[in-house]
Design a protein that fits this description.
The structure is a homodimer of 767-residue chains. Helices cover 33% and strands 26% of the residues of chain A. With 767 residues, chain A is an alpha+beta fold.
């Protein structure tokens, strides 16, 4: 736990320079726009603790797998999010001495992530070793309007000095990934150009041959007046810069405006990359910092208008939820169906690959409710684009006839993690990918998605499950052996309830979807059947046979489902009865001890009951919750949100609030002592769910929106907005009353606390 | 399968140069003496396919663990057998051209590993690119009499050339391990000296600071006459050599005699290392090649006298068993209780660490029967020396109060492998280490070993098992969760029958051993109790409770023990019904598919029934054999021997012979396509067991030797010798009769085919 940041409803604020926590702050104060992003590194030189990081969406490196002992079937590489050329750099030298906060006395240091307007600002007074005292203020953002553009306003005022200040804005493409498996550099230089007050580098990734052009152009003002100046070009391998020497008088403010752009060969032809980069930089320069920033603020205002959650009476909770929403919006905009949501977004390198099941299981609901329908749809289409690769992946593992196994971790559809427990056994991800199709259609009503994309994916997945189970002679039921469920504190277990359940659910849903498409789009159905060689009668009978005869481990006496076969052979101890010095288990216990213990990283039976809540009565959910919750250690960032939602459903207010707190400020307070590696982006969507589905009790059933709000005692009120079937609703929950505002001109009917209401356009409902 | 070697009862012979198989040959023709050893690399330069390897016993490097994803509790390093300075090098240059078989036309190439006399010989005629034709014969050995000494006779005869030949005998200490995790060199140079016709290097291993002095001295003869010659000293980093230029006439034989020594700081003080090395080299030089070789041959003759197995009527089988016995004797002599038997001996780097459970489970019986009792005893004492480390190791994994978990792989008692399935879960090794104590005492009658060393180890092990099991509320029995049995094609299973069984057996045997020591050495017993804080009444009651209430998975209907809980949920398919292109599974199937399949790498239920044969009736053994054998793929080199022994017991002649063949020529015929990495040394002892315990039916029960010989139809006869309680017996089994010769002057009583016989000194028994 670290608690050095100020509570504020709209900003994250660090006052005073916390050197030791700098890497932690670099993660927290990260900025991005869905296309690019970066850690809150300093513009000027810094020799202290830092993890330099700047990232371009969709650009990765297939780093050769590193394992202790090779296992047949391992993926060849572990894809790495690439640390890209640094465009923020502005070196400052005064009297021959570089400005470097690690070498200065620092006063009045303040860093602010202004979430409302989407910029990072930093100011300080530094006393350099040569006695020079300067005041600095820097402000920068990655524009969400011009999403290839970033801009910096870097102001420096000498407080006790008149004379020359050397300023070197630069681009550095000599970048390493800290998590490189073999200490290799991932970039080659392709082209480089330095011009007056400008510089450009085109770099190409090894193996994948992505090209990224990074460009910059700058101007300088003194006392708010544009000045003319000469600059010395610096042009060396993987580096371009312009050194400018400017005389200033004590107390005069000198400001560097630096405009930069990242253009990727994913969006431009390689031939035109450099030329286009120059145009983008030129246009940004022409618009100027203030215009760019003001467009950017307005765009953020619009985003907040849609996705903000207000919590009254609890600044810390307010700040937490906004921090989560802000970073989600910085990471993924849904505008590019080739992109997805990496667990660390643009805030760090860890977890390499971009896409996990987190997207479908945790992030989708956030985008469904807070963004245009197209955004969530693009997340689904992303998987459809990878269907061929998923079939190849299943083929590598011995599956045949179009069975699809989506990878656990991927950049381009190929599996790219290197732990067998995850790669080979966490096949439940296939279920979440099917579930997301259901979830999307259930929420949006866009049932045409099935014919267009969904059905092919579902059939591939159903085919996989069919081959992955077999009839146990001992049980006379279909079983599924050797899996790892969402609870990664078990490995290679038999009949994981969650996986068995979602597997048959997938088959059922596929059968329903087939029926639907066959009826509504018979021609498209015929086309699909022919394309994927699907003979319904043959395959669907197999699925029905499995659906009817699947084995689900349970304990009838306790009335609970068993996480896996023989779970009750474990010694059942509650987390509260553990010696607290043993926590977190993943840092204190050896792996084998964790594996054989009853303790759960995230409770997958509860995950299943959350997904399929309607298929169980509340008592069943309660019995399982009461059994599994006390033995869950929540050492996955994805865990507490589901518990919060379920506790809310079961009316366990304190537990719901406890679990909410655990997820909302995970990174801000550095609960798990790992924020310095980057933020837990995907679990941030879980925090949003804890409020909307948990405290708000939002569900969609049979095309109707249900709400069952409940408010924690400590709050005065909370409010969130959701989109639903063309309507935009605001739900305000207070201690006394609940208010629902239809902000759109689309009428909508809702079920509030079990009662039907019709809301006309722009109508309020107060209860 | 590779079948390019000639069948011969006493030698391994390669005729014609098989370039593509050179690394394979380098493994097979390896020589060693228990203290040092080396692959059959060439003395002269060779630019073709080669894996250079020379090794000194007990000298290792703790290479930082390399894993895909760190798991808490992992060992810090993976110990590597160290590739040591090369002492065999003799560069030959004629007319400015280096002799290099990769650059020559090669005729009459012949390589022989003479197992009877223990040397490696190689001869060839090479036509160099400059037209010079030379005949070469080299012969070398690592003396088993002077075990720090190696010697080479390198003869070269120009066939169409008269003139100068440049000869450079050298030592090269600039050595890399091919399996280095981080491409690091493991040796630093400490000292170096070049003298007339001599050279010395002292090198030190990084981190472990072992020092090894390597020395050499040489002489040259022409036409068998010693000649005087000048030499040019070559003295550079990590390299010492002497270049000699000698004029020879066509047809004259020039011979270099090179004497070398390895001295390790494990056996000499570092101060004296160089001085002692010079003395050892000097003495070897003085003795001369022929004397050294003749001593060496005599020592080998004595070894064969004890350990030879004769098979008549099957040269291929004869060659196979001698090859196994030869390499076992080259790897471990039992003279140094600090040493043990690495899976690849001195023939390759793979599997890093030196000691696995292989030693106790497979190698011990060989040394018990064929060497002085002290040899087997030293293998046990080795583990006693590591008891403190085993307690520390258990402590790292959360065990307390003197519980000992021996490492799965070790050099110095610390765990040093980096796969969790092996490191954390293959705890069955603890059982084999206890079993070896029983096995040793059962065979030798040296029950005093318990008081001296054994009991402390047994109590440590029993304490471990006690903490590793717990009472299952569901079963009302003690269970053991999350283990990997000897069958490594399963991971993280519950209630592995073998492990559960050997765990309770350990506790029982510990209780018996306590009773024995208490009665026979009460003072020593009190001493042990006080040393290890053992309060009998408290701990032994716990053990008894577990012994009485342990859970063993079984299927009563089938009458078999279950490898683990729910084994019968698997789809049971026989290996013979598998598509043969799917074999070997470990190269054709992905790891998850292997894990969930029924296929067994080595059958651990059968391993248990082999260890504890007396505790089960033959029908039980048969039922289990008939169930498990058909689903076993024998992809562990340790597997077929147990099946061979058990098939022999059950009278399944064909199966016993098939399994024997599978183990006996594993490396010679390169069954698993991996001999180039080194030989499977520890499984070679299994081959010996297949004959002695399988075909010979040898057992020791109640201090008596039992024999139940049976002979495969294809053989005329076979004969082996065993030591037993001071007697030396030869057992000759023919198709018609069995003959037992007591070659010693110790009378012995034996039970042959169930009938008692007393053999007086030097008496024969013919049946």
């Amino acid at each position: 736990m670290k608690q050095y940041l100020k509570a504020d409803p709209w900003s994250i604020i660090e006052e005073g320079f916390h050197r030791a926590y700098n890497e932690n702050s670099e993660s927290i104060f990260s900025i991005g726009n869905g296309r690019m992003g970066q850690r809150a590194n300093f513009e000027e030189k810094f020799t202290g603790k830092t993890l330099q990081g700047s990232y371009v969406a969709g650009v990765y490196y297939p780093d050769k797998t590193r394992v202790g002992w090779w296992k047949n079937g391992y993926p060849e590489y572990f894809a790495k999010v690439l640390n890209a050329p640094n465009w923020i750099g502005i070196d400052i030298t005064i009297n021959g001495k570089a400005l470097d906060l690690n070498q200065c006395e620092v006063e009045d240091f303040r860093r602010e992530l202004n979430m409302k307007e989407g910029y990072l600002e930093r100011s300080f007074i530094a006393k350099m070793k040569n006695g020079v005292k300067v005041k600095v203020n820097s402000k920068r953002f990655c524009s969400i309007v011009e999403d290839e553009v970033g801009a910096i306003r870097y102001s420096i005022t000498p407080l006790n000095y008149s004379g020359v200040i050397d300023i070197t804005p630069y681009i550095d493409a000599d970048i390493v990934n800290k998590d490189s498996n073999y200490d290799e550099k991932f970039w080659n230089e392709i082209d480089r150009e330095v011009r007056r007050r400008q510089g450009y580098i085109v770099a190409e990734t090894k193996k994948t041959a992505f090209q990224v052009a990074t460009g910059m152009k700058f101007s300088i003002t003194v006392e708010e007046e544009d000045i003319d100046f000469d600059s010395k070009k610096i042009n060396k391998e993987k580096y371009v810069g312009n050194k400018v020497s400017i005389g200033v008088s004590e107390g005069s403010e000198l400001v560097v405006y630096k405009y930069a752009a990242y253009l990727s060969s994913e969006n431009h032809s390689k031939k035109e990359l450099l030329g286009n980069c120059k145009s983008v930089v030129k246009n940004a320069f022409k618009k100027g910092f203030n215009t760019l920033l003001s467009e950017h603020k307005n765009a953020w205002a619009a985003k907040w208008e849609e996705s903000d959650i207000i919590i009254e009476g609890d600044v810390s909770a307010q700040q937490g939820i906004r921090f989560n929403i802000f970073h989600l919006n910085q990471t993924y905009t849904g505008e590019d169906e080739r992109l997805n949501i990496g667990p660390k977004g643009f805030t760090g390198e860890k977890y390499g690959g971009s896409t996990y099941w987190d997207t479908e299981a945790y992030c989708l609901p956030f985008y469904l409710s807070t963004a245009d329908q197209r955004v969530a749809r693009n997340l689904l289409v992303y998987r459809h684009r990878h269907l061929e690769k998923a079939i190849e992946n299943a083929g590598k593992l011995g599956f045949v006839k179009g069975a699809a196994l989506y990878p656990m971790v991927t950049m381009n559809g190929e599996e790219c993690h290197n732990e067998w427990e995850i790669t080979f056994e966490e096949i439940h991800r296939n279920g979440a990918i099917a579930y997301a199709i259901y979830d999307y259609i259930n929420y949006t009503g866009d049932v045409n998605y099935l014919a267009e994309y969904g059905l092919e994916v579902l059939i591939g997945i159903a085919r996989f499950w069919k081959q992955r189970v077999h009839m146990s002679a001992a049980k006379g039921k279909y079983v599924m052996l050797g899996v790892t469920g969402p609870n990664e504190y078990e490995n290679n277990v038999n009949n994981n309830w969650y996986t068995n359940y979602i597997a048959t659910w997938c088959m059922k849903y596929t059968l329903e979807s087939i029926a639907h498409v066959k009826q509504t789009s018979p021609q498209r159905y015929a086309e699909i059947c022919s394309k994927i060689n699907f003979i319904e009668i043959r395959e669907s009978d197999d699925w029905k046979e499995i659906i009817d005869n699947m084995y689900y481990p349970e304990d009838k006496e306790k009335g609970i489902f068993l996480q896996q076969d023989n779970f009750l052979d474990k010694e059942i101890i509650k987390v509260k009865d553990l010696d607290p010095t043993h926590l977190p288990l993943n840092q204190k216990w050896s792996w084998d001890r964790i594996l054989r213990s009853c303790f759960i990283k995230q409770a997958d039976v509860l995950q299943g009951l959350y997904f399929f809540e309607d298929q169980f009565d509340v008592d069943t959910i309660r019995r399982n919750f009461e059994f599994y919750e006390p033995i869950t250690v929540h050492e996955s960032s994805l865990s507490p949100c589901v518990h919060s939602i379920q506790a809310a459903l079961l009316g366990m207010e304190e537990k719901a609030y406890e679990m909410y707190l655990r997820t909302a400020r995970l990174d801000l307070d550095d609960y798990n002592n790992d924020t310095e590696d980057g933020l837990h982006i995907t679990s941030m969507a879980g925090t949003w769910m804890a409020i909307v589905k948990g405290f708000g009790g939002m569900r969609v059933k049979d095309d109707k929106l249900h709400l069952n709000p409940f408010i924690p005692k400590k709050w005065k009120g909370f409010a969130f907005k959701i989109r639903f079937r063309g309507a935009l609703l605001q739900i305000k929950v207070g201690q006394e009353k609940t208010e629902i505002l239809n902000l759109s001109d689309t009428p909508v009917s809702i079920i509030l606390n079990g009662k039907d209401y019709a809301l006309n356009a722009v109508e309020n409902l107060v209860l």
